[in-house]
Amino acid sequence: MRQILNEVTERIRERSAPTRKAYLQRIEETLKRARGSDRMGCANVAHAFAAMPENDKFRIIAEKAPHIGIVTAYNDMLSAHQPYEVYPAIIRDEARKHGATVQVAGGVPAMCDGITQGEPGMELSLFSRDVIAMSTAVALSHDVFDAALLLGVCDKIVPGLLIGALNFGHLPCVFVPAGPMSTGIDNTTKSKVREKFAQGLCDRDELLASESAAYHGAGTCTFYGTANSNQMLLEAMGLHVPGAAFVHPHDGMREALTRESVRTVLSNIQGRRFTPIGQLVDERVIVNAIVALLATGGSTNHCIHWVAVARAAGIIIDWSDFSKLSQDTPLLARVYPNGTADVNEFQNAGGPSFVIRELIEGGYMHADVSSVVIGGLRDFCKKPVMFDNELTWIDLPEESPDETIVRSPRKPFSASGGLRLLTGNLGRAVIKTSSVPEDRMIIEAPAIVFHAQEELLAAFERGELEKDFVAVVRFQGPRANGMPELHKLTPPLSVLQGKGFKVAIVTDGRMSGASGKVPAAIHVSPEALASGPISKIRTGDIIRLNAIVGTLNALVDQDQWNARSLQTMTEAERNNNGHGIGRELFGGMRGNVRSAEEGAVTWL
Known about the structure:
Strand content: 5-15%
Shape: globular
Strand order of the largest sheet: 7-8-12-11-10-9-13-14
C-alpha cells in the first residue's frame, strides 16, 4: 500500500481512538440484547406486527425468522427515487423465498436540488440530510429488525441514510440503488444552451426544451454530481451489491440486483458472516471512500457529507486528510463536468468496478476490509451480468475500454486527485481542480462583494462584470442561510471566463461539482456569520487564489487587515433567509450547526 494512504489512515485512527472506542462499545452493548420480538412486551410485539399476514407473524415470533426493515426515500417527484415504488414488493417476495420477513420501517424525505436550485427551498437542502438521518432513526427505533435495506440515491439522501444507519450500527445494512436515467442530450450541449440563455441569446422555450431533453425519465441525472458520487462511494465502501450503482432502472438486471440485495443482507445476519454496519465502516473504509471520490473527480459536497458520516461512526476526519490523500491519488476518470462522458458512458467503460480494481492493484486503497459480500472489496472489481437469467459477475478487461473516460494509474489523467485544500488569511476552503484549465489555477484580481447570488446575477445582466474579478459571495454558510448550492452562478461566470476574463468565486456556500472550469474556493470556513475573515473583504481588495500551492489570501496590508471590522448580515438579510417556504422550522438547525469542515452537523 502507498505510504500516504497508511499515514493518513493511521493519523485518523489515532485522532479517532476515544470516539471510535466508545462507538464500538455501544454496538457491543446493544448486541447483547435478545431479539426485539423476544425482548419486548407482548403489547409492543402485537403493535409491531398487527398488520402483517398471520404466517409472517408466525415466522418472526415462533420460528425466529430474520426480519428486515426497509427505509425508503421513495417519492414520484424525484426521477431517481420514482423507481422505488415497486421495490418493497420485490424485496418482500425475495425474502419469503428465503424464509425471511420484511416491513417498510419508514420513509425519509427526499428533495431535489435541481428543482429548488436558486429558490428559497434550496436553503433547506443541506439540513435535509440531518432530517433524513433522524427520520432513518425514527424508522428503525421500533427496534424489531435484524437487518435493514436502505433505499436512496441522491445528494443528501444517501449521506442521511448512512448517518442514520450508523446510529444503528449493530444492524447489518445494505444500500439498494435505483440507477441513472438513460442518456439524453449531452451535458456539454446542455451547458452551452445555459450559457446562451445567460447572455440573452436564446429564449426560455429553447432553454426548457434543452433541460427537458437532458432530464427526461426515471433515474438519476446523468452527470457526475453528488448523487452519482454517492453511488461511487458506496461501492468503494462495500455497502452495495457489487456493481449495482449504474444499472438503468428499467434494465432487466436491476430487479436481479435488488433481489440479490435481500440475499446479501440475509447472509450478513447470522454466523461467521455477521457484519453489522458499524463494525464494517471503520477508518480504512472511510479512507477508501475519500480515495474513490478523489480518483473520479467527484462532488465537493462530500468534503462535508463524509465528514458527517465518519463522525456518525466515531471517526474524526477533516479537509487536511482529503488534501493529503489527493496529492497521492491519481485521477482515473473523466466524467462530466470533469470530461464529456456521462455516467452511462462511464459505466460502459468499466465504471466503479474498473476504478476500484485499479486503485486496489496500485495500492491506493485498503483491500483488506470487510464488505457486505463474502469476497470483500475485491468482489467490487467485477462486472455484474445476466447469464441464462441468472445474475453473475465477470472480470473486466485488463486495459481500459475507453481511455478518454477511465484509465489505470500507469497513465492517469492527472497524477493527483481533483481536490485541494486552500489556506490563508481568509480561512480554510476547498477547490475542485480536476476540470480547471491550467492557466486558471492562479487567479489574482479585485474582489467584488455580494451578499446573495441574486446580486451577482443582476450585476451580470447590467453588464458590470466584463472584467477580471473575484466574486466574493458571503453569508452563504450553514449558519447564515443553510448553505445552498450556488449553481446558478456557473453559467454567467463561465461566459465571462469564455470571453477571456480572469474570474473566480470565493464563497462560504457550496457549488458541488457544478463549479466546473471556473476556479471556485468554496466552503470557506469559518463562515462570514461565524466571524470568519471572509466578512472582512471589501470590494476592490486584491484576492489571490493559488490552487497549485493551495493558498487563499486577501492581499491587504496586515495592520489594515487586523484593524478592519467584520461586516454582518443586515436585519433584512437575516429575515429574508429565515422565513417562508418552511425556513422558520429550520431556525434551530441554523443556530446549532457546526462548520462545514466539521460536516455541518446539527446533532453533536
